[in-house]
Amino acid sequence: MRTLISTAFISLDGVVEAPGGEPGYRNSGWTFKDIEFLPEAFDIKGREQQEATAILMGRTSYEAFSPVWPDMADFAGYKVMPKYVVSTTLTDNDLVANWGETTILRSLDEVAALKETEGGPIIVHGSASLNQALSDAGLIDRYHLLVFPLLLGAGKRLFSATDKDTQKLKLVEHEVYANGLQKNIFDVVR
Hints:
190 residues, Dihydrofolate Reductase, subunit A, 5 helices
């Protein structure tokens, strides 16, 4: 079975909305404001590109990333990877032509079936709503969280507020950086 990894920039209070400066969110771009940039704190991002063999995202994240990521040197490793977009509304005509193979999945059952195929880790970028649904369905195997020392209040959250049984996590890697960022990698305990 393939490992499904959720990766996120997340505030201490769990917000994942608009870390890179997307419009429409009050605190947009919070990952780059008032926090000293330390390259070592972001090493996990390069490692993810080396270790992942496919990308999974929701429609909204696909529509945000697909016009930008294909031509960015920082994300060159993702250009050649198969991409999977979970959407009930997206069509093949909505897909960009310059970002490699992209497959539309229509349900969480199709995501579960993808996990059963041969291959290495699948990484989930952005996609707050999809992350919540994947977590609630027990499909996420690992979390890569880069926690920022910020309280943002309102905003999209990585984890749902669904009333469910406790889901245990095992901390398998962590580091704290001089700028206050924390890298926390958790495996989901089954």
